[in-house]
Write a structure and sequence with these properties.
Blueprint: H1 3-10, E1 18-22, E2 29-35, H2 40-53, E3 57-60, E4 76-79, E5 86-90, E6 95-98, H3 104-111, E7 116-117, H4 129-135, H5 142-145, E8 152-158, E9 164-168, H6 173-179, E10 188-195, E11 197-198, E12 203-211, H7 214-224, E13 230-235, E14 247-254, H8 263-266, E15 277-278, E16 282-283, H9 287-291, H10 297-314, E17 320-324, H11 325-329, E18 347-355, H12 356-373, E19 379-385, E20 398-406, H13 412-428, E21 432-433, H14 443-450, H15 452-465, H16 474-488
Parallel strand pairs: 2-4, 3-4
Antiparallel strand pairs: 1-2, 5-6, 6-10, 7-11, 8-9, 8-10, 12-14, 12-17, 13-14, 13-19, 15-16, 18-20, 18-21, 19-20
Helix pairs in contact: 12-13
Length: 490
């Protein structure tokens, strides 16, 4: 094609669709042409537009990935939040079929009155199910039930050329196991069928347990994971020495039939909603403003120290209490827009997954290295995991540690350098990474943890599903751009 003709075609996209789009952590952004179709025909037209104009498409759900997984600089963003119908629900079997823009919130609010709950949810209720499937999200119960992909029965995947592939464990199994967790590079989920979890109450039994070291935290997890439905640990990332890894574990368990004297009430949606105010007075929508003065090394150290010691006093006997499903599951939604407390530079979350045998030493080294570098994480969350059979999996038979780092203009390069050193610790320990959270990985690190065989198989499927590499994002180019360019001869 004549270069002038190609340039004219690339200029055909409407300028009114140009928007600046952020990663959820606010530390990365891009200018893109954003389209928000509400029908399958509209989605197909965006793919046709991309082919006509020589642009690539990045898929975006609710935009809850922390980094650049849903960004596509100077190209097209296909925003699927309006493609959000619940297509079929069977309250007898717990099987539901939805469009990919349905959110976790829509899902649980629709099924809970019938006595069901999503089997896997992240720490926020706002991601779309298409996004959840693309990143194969995990929850506080991964050690018991696996990621969301383990509960997807089948899906329809729209390929860039307009074909729709029906995928399940029996039909197109290789594509099923690659598109789930395939970060939107093989096709667009347009219909998903999942099986929900039967519950007999709107409440959970929750127990808080204080531990004084990382070794003690792991010991509690290993002892309780055989019987617990959920386990999650908060770690004080500012504590050092023998106290490295100290924190609070929350165990939660479903109530059995008959345990709740009034399940009809606790399953009602109004008894699940998170409160909008504190003590009925202070609006939570402005809380982030009060948090901002403490989002520095000294302030975070004081807050974490106070949190640990106050929790030790309150929960010294491991006393149990009951909490709604939504209150336990969606802790990140308690303070709306809490990310703004980090300031204009935002934050990144660095999450690594380490096998059980090497987890304690690796995470202790990570926390110590960050603290000594002068950039302690401001939040640290600890979870237990099991292996799954998805191609680009992040999971291990072991543990994950998610670390939030504040980003400023002055420290950005230093944090990226620190992340590189943390990567070396993870790889040495046989660990893996989670692309929904990633902002800093380099291509060689991604290839090493995924392995050549997995990358080669993924690229084979990419060539079959998207030979012209229409599906791309800033993340895919950052980690796999050279491989995709070589493969497709672009």
């Amino acid at each position: 094609m004549d270069p002038r003709t190609q340039h004219e075609q690339r200029s055909l996209l409407p300028s009114q669709n140009l928007e600046r789009v952020e990663g959820w952590g606010m530390s990365s952004d891009a200018v893109s042409y954003v389209f928000r179709p509400s029908t399958l025909e509209g989605i197909t037209e965006v793919f046709a537009m991309a082919r006509r104009t020589g642009r690539s498409i990045g898929l975006r759900g609710a935009g809850r990935s922390y980094g650049d997984a849903a960004l596509n600089s100077e190209n097209i963003i296909l925003d699927l939040t309006r493609f959000c119908r619940i297509l079929e629900w069977n309250p007898e079997s717990g099987v539901i079929t939805v469009e990919s823009g349905v959110t976790i919130r829509q899902l649980w609010e629709y099924i809970l009155p019938d006595g069901w709950w999503p089997p896997v949810v992240p720490g926020t209720m706002f991601p779309t199910l298409g996004g959840c499937a693309s990143m194969n999200i995990h929850g506080k119960n991964n050690f018991r039930v696996g990621p969301i992909g383990d509960h997807i029965l089948e899906f329809d995947l729209l390929l860039p050329d307009g074909r729709i592939m029906r995928c399940s464990r029996q039909e197109n199994s290789d594509l099923f196991h690659a598109a789930i967790g395939g970060f939107g590079m093989l096709g667009c989920f347009v219909r998903l069928t999942l099986r929900m979890k039967k519950v007999y109450s709107g409440l959970l039994d929750v127990t808080a347990i204080n531990v004084r070291s990382l070794d003690a935290m792991i010991e509690v997890f290993e002892r309780r994971m055989e019987t617990a439905d959920y386990l999650v640990g908060w770690i004080d990332p500012t504590a050092g020495g023998a106290s490295t890894g100290r924190g609070v574990i929350h165990e939660a368990n479903y109530l059995k039939p008959g345990d709740d004297p009034n399940p009809a009430q606790t399953l009602r949606l109004e008894n699940q909603q998170l409160p909008d105010t504190i003590l009925g007075i202070l609006p939570k929508s402005i809380l982030w403003r009060f948090m901002r003065p403490f989002l520095n090394n000294l302030g975070v150290r004081l807050v974490n120290n106070a949190k640990f010691h106050s929790s030790a006093l309150i929960d010294r006997d491991g006393k149990s209490f009951r909490q709604s499903h939504a209150a336990f599951a969606f802790l990140l939604d308690y303070v709306p827009n809490w990310k703004r407390s980090y300031g204009s530079g935002g934050l990144i979350q660095y999450q690594s997954f380490i096998p059980e045998a090497t987890a304690a030493d690796a995470f202790r080294e990570q926390l110590t290295l960050a603290r000594r570098a002068g950039y302690p994480p401001y939040l640290a969350v600890f979870k237990r995991h099991r292996r799954d059979d998805f191609l680009m999996t992040h999971s291990v038979d072991g543990y994950s540690l998610a670390l939030d780092f504040k980003i400023t203009r002055a420290n950005r390069r230093a944090i990226w350098d620190l992340a590189g050193k943390l990567d070396a610790i993870v790889l040495k320990a046989g660990g893996r990474f989670y692309l929904a959270k990633d902002s800093t990985l380099r291509p060689e690190v991604a290839r090493e943890y995924l392995g050549d065989a997995a990358v080669a198989e993924f690229m084979r499927l990419k060539h079959l599903c998207d030979p012209d590499a229409i599906l791309e994002t800033n993340l895919s180019r950052r980690l796999f751009g050279a491989a995709a360019t070589t493969l497709h001869g672009r």
